[in-house]
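As agreed, record passed on underneath.
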Amino acid sequence: MVKVAVLDYGIGNLRSAQKAFEILGAEAHLTADKELVLGSDGVVLPGVGNFGKCAKALTDSGVRELALLAVENDLPFLGICVGMQLLYEISDESPNAEGLGLLTGKVKLLENAPRIPQMQWNQIQVEGDSPLLRGLEDEWFYFVHSYAAEQNHLQNITIATCTYGSSVIAAVQKGSLYGTQFHPEKSGKAGQLLLQNFLKICERTV
């Protein structure tokens, strides 16, 4: 059974991510315990709301260092929504807050958006062949966000985009580090397939 650590830093409905993995048969722990996190097969960082509040909660809870250790130990790592944004260095939403800095660049307000936030189902366009998105070409996922990662054509880490006024980065990958701007745990069968793909990555079978 695959062991997944859902990082517990007291922000948002973390239990929903844990439950989504449990439904798929994983042993999922909502935890901030170092031994449990580093002993897991994969680590998940969900996030909702304000970038600055999430960044502060990460630091205050001690989970920030756990997240960095997990990536340093090459554990498959998935950031969801604001959890993906926290993988970057900074966000225009909270200019004085520091992200994890695992990805170069910043998070910016959605450009040319018909309305803010984007709160809807949207169709992704898959780029390349990431194991996280296998079988998910042109599928629909649920988005709730006002900010998104800045387009950086010098980095070849974008694995999916969507269109919302302009092109928006929907998912990224750098090695065993993954991020989705959408909520797979709220995205029906497509979201379940994505989380199953992540479990396969955790099993090192892809």
User: Anything to note?
Assistant: The helical segments are 14-23, 34-38, 51-61, 63-72, 82-85, 188-202. The chain has one domain: 3-202.
